[in-house]
Amino acid sequence: xVLVLLLVVASSRLAGNRQELHDAAHQAARAASTTRDxxxxxxxxxxxxxxxxxxxxxxxxxxxVVTDVSRFRPGGTVHVQVSCExxxxxxxxGMPGSRRLSASATSPVDAYRGAVGIASGQPGDSR
Length: 127
Description:
- With 127 residues, the chain is of the alpha+beta class.
- Helix content is 39%, strand content 24%.
- It has one domain: 2-Layer Sandwich (Pantoate--beta-alanine Ligase, Chain: A,domain 2).
- The chain has a three-stranded antiparallel beta sheet with strand order 1-2-3.
- It is elongated.
């Protein structure tokens, strides 16, 4: 009976962490899409994802943020994938092991703004 209760608690906390991870990915993608260049977008996505997880109280053993800026141009998109290794003993004391959670989000880059170093031929192009 106690084991079942612990599994229910762990599942509930994992679901909460998964939701926070989706939120962090969304925040990171949005922040990256508002930067002026691909390198800044990658740095910003990582910073925002880590800050969002920290402020939500998600304790990750390891955080990985992968930012796809291959379509970073006016009218394009930025895609961010955030992965977090969650120690199960952090969810339920005494529970061994860990679980890797991942979430991703895509955010559009404003079609009517310029971006440094990108020639699109569209309105707002900085060249």
